[in-house]
Task: structure prediction
Amino acid sequence: MLVVFTNKSGGTVEMFEKVALEMIKMMGRRQAVPSAISAEDLPAALQSLQQELKALEQAAAEETEDADNSTEDEDAPKQVGISIRAYPLIELMKHAIDNQSFLMWDYN
Result:
């Protein structure tokens, strides 16, 4: 299933449910769909999301260093990191903050 994030100013971001619920959790919200974040709470949610992503990036970097010592198949597909998946949502949240708007999400 897809989860669609929207705000009053018209932007939308679609994500698969598993990734969307993970992002919602990283924002410090309960993993409920549909739901919303008020304009007043959005800056704190954005900061929480960014801090969680930074911690995950650091953990992934440490794992990569350990994995570099072992042999890997260079032809194996690389996974898209959670930070890359989060980028459109972060931009939507920043846009909502700039427009003093809320962020809401629901199933598509």
About this structure: The chain has a mean pLDDT of 89. Helices lie at 17-26, 42-68, 82-98.
